[in-house]
Amino acid sequence: MSEQPQVAADPAPDAPPETGDIVIDSALGALAAVPEEDLDARLAAGEEVQRTLRSRLGDLGG
After folding, report:
1. Cβ–Cβ < 8 Å for 16, 28
2. Contacts within 8 Å (CB) and 24+ apart, 48-55
3. What is the pLDDT of residue 17?
4. DSSP 8-state code for residue 3
5. Strand, helix or coil for residue 25
6. What is the pLDDT of residues 6-62, one digit of tens each?
7. Gap between the Cα atoms of 45 and 11, Å rounded
8. DSSP alpha helix (H) spans, the chain
9. Spatial contact of 32 and 11, defined as CB atoms under 8 Å apart
10. What is the pLDDT of residue 23?
11. Do 20 and 4 meet the contact criterion of CB atoms below 8 Å apart?
C-alpha cells in the first residue's frame, strides 16, 4: 500500500499570502490587518508593500 503525500491545507481566506520571505510576509500581513474602511492606512500599507517588493527585487538584479 502506498502512502498518499500530505497536502497542506489552504490558508484561511482572509489570511495574507505567505512568500517565505519574512520581510515581505510582514508587509503583506500589515496590509491585511488594516481595516478596509481606512483608505489612508490601506494606501500607506500598500505603498510599503510596493517599496518592500521593489527592494527585494532590486537585491536580485545585477
Report:
1. yes
2. 49/24, 52/23, 52/24, 52/27, 53/24, 53/27
3. 84
4. P
5. helix
6. 655 555 667 788 999 999 999 999 999 999 999 999 999 999 999 999 999 998 876
7. 21
8. 22-33, 39-60
9. no
10. 94
11. no
